[in-house]
Amino acid sequence: MLTVRVIPCLDVKDGRVVKGVNFVDLRDAGDPVEQAKVYDAAGADELTFLDITASSDNRDTLFDVVSRTAEVAFMPLTVGGGVRKVDDIRKLLLAGADKVSINTAAVKRPDFVKEAAERFGSQCITVAIDAKSVAPGRWEIFTHGGREATGIDTVAFAEQVVSLGAGEILLTSMDRDGTKAGFNLPLTRAIADAVSVPVVASGGVGTLDHMVEGVTEGHASAVLAASIFHFGEFSIAQVKAHMAAAGVPVRPVDGGTAAA
Amino acid sequence: MTQSKNVVIVDYRVGNTHSLERSLKRCGLSPVITSDPAVIEQADGVLMPGVGAFGPAMESLMETGASAAIRRFVDSGRPVLAICLGMQLLADEGEEGGHHRGLSIIPGRVRRLAPPQEHSKIPQIAWNEIMPVADDWRETVLDGLQGRQMYFLHSYVVDPARPEDRVAETDYMGDCFCAAYRSANVHGVQFHPELSAEAGQAVFRNFVRLIDETAQKNDI
Asked: Active site located where (chain A) (predicted)?
């Protein structure tokens, strides 16, 4: 049975986890590799690293983190943040990323998505979109961590990058991010219904029901969360048990046969 | 014998083979990543990795002479495990980014996923179940893995010409495609065992067993 992915997200700065998990038994809680191991063992379906290092000076640190993570984690790894050139993607893939996520660079120059997809295949090119509500039923793209408005309509932009070869959309609601008020469901559903590639819902998860709603009402193919995992509020197993009980098919944490 | 097993990951010079290498190391192997025809032909087992696009990968195989070496290796009867794009490259022809000839080791063609369901999504990026087609998985890399979930990351699939070569199917939004292929010593999987946690590791352990069994037969 086709299952919905549950994806923890780690913000990484200068090779260290900024918002991380408060796992008590970690030798080094700031080490993304240690956290990746824990999520791997916990049954996460993918792991996403977002590099929020401000300058490009420390990019080599990220490649090292990606390669050490790929060494220990037996699940797919998506890496994003500061990806501007085809060569950035090549380096991340060579370091061990399975998918690379493009954000600001796709807004500035949508053809970059086309070049990336032609070179590496659509399946490994994710476009990360940060959107804010500007009017009922209308969402605008923001860049630079939600500070800069672009005037670009989110639905139109999502359709555009998919037509250029994006294989997945990582959709974050800037209104909801960090609020624990739940995904922006109308936004998620508008994008998921508009495009022919999987949409990962992100931003706002605070309860187990929110994860379910992202799929049943938002029509997302995957749900991503940071805070609820970081602060140890819920485990991957709890999220999956809750989703399964609500009728959303998930890969069981014990690795056994599918349950829904 | 276990220590001297010589396993090759064919290098198409297009992408990341880290995860595959790491998974094989965990099985006690020391894989060599190469496109050198002589090294490929000497191997006890060959892996075709699952990263990159069809056209550039085929070009690389032709340029390096690896394509002919892979054909000779297959003729030798030693086991091949081809993953995702690797399996597609073994088919007769592909349609990713234009029409391309494959290696014609797997009779069949590569097509794009075509789920009939409304709001269907391509690529498939998901954990999905492998369902038996062949009655018996003992002689395949899927031994003991009935009903398990594997990680898929693909837009294209192989349609084998001979129905009996289909070992497992996966249902993606109504498109039931060939998730695992086997004909004699040629094994193919559309999913990524190297990204499929413990279930994926079991695929590689099964492959190692097949290498050992072949080597034993050849010793006798």
From this structure: 11, 130
Active site residue A11: yes
Q: Give the E-state strand segments of chain B in sequence order.
A: 7-10, 32-34, 45-48, 80-83, 93-94, 100-101, 108-112, 124-129, 131-132, 149-154, 156-160, 166-172, 175-183, 186-189
pLDDT of residue A256: 46
Domain at B2-219, CATH homologous superfamily: Class I glutamine amidotransferase (GATase) domain (3.40.50.880)
Q: Which residues contact A48 (CB under 8 A, 6 or more apart)?
A: A7, A8, A9, A10, A77, A78, A79, A80, A101, A170, A224
In whole angstroms, give the CA distance from residue A11 to residue A178: 13
A96 touches chain B (CB under 8 A): yes
Nearest-10 crossing angle of helices A86-95, A111-120 = 40
Question: Is the minimum CB–CB distance between A45 and chain B shorter than 8 Å?
Answer: yes
Across chain B, what does the average pLDDT equal? 93
Q: Is the dihedral of CA B111, B115, B119, B122 positive or negative?
A: negative
Which residues from B are below 8 Å from A95, CB to CB? 16, 18
- Whether residue B202 is predicted with pLDDT greater than 80 in this model: the reply is yes
Q: Chain A residues with CB inside 8 Å of B153's CB?
A: 76, 98-99, 123-124
Kindly list the domain boundaries of chain A, sorted by start residue: 5-245
- B53 touching chain A per CB within 8 A: yes
Model ipTM value: 0.92
Calculate mean pLDDT across residues B50-72.
Answer: 92
The minimum CA-CA distance between A132 and chain B, rounded to whole Å, is 24
Q: Which of B21, B100, B127 to substitute to test the interface with A, most A CBs within 10 Å?
A: B127
CATH of range A5-245; options 3.30.420.480, 3.90.1150.10, 3.20.20.70, 3.40.910.10: 3.20.20.70
**Per-domain boundaries in chain B:** 2-219
> In chain A, positions 53-82, which contact chain B (CB-CB < 8 Å)?
67, 70-71, 74-76
Per the CB < 8 A criterion, the answer to whether B123 and B113 are in contact is yes
The model scores a pTM over 0.80: yes
Which residues in B lie closer than 8 A to residue A70 (C-beta atoms)? 16, 18-19, 22
**Contact, A79 vs A60, CB < 8 A?**
no
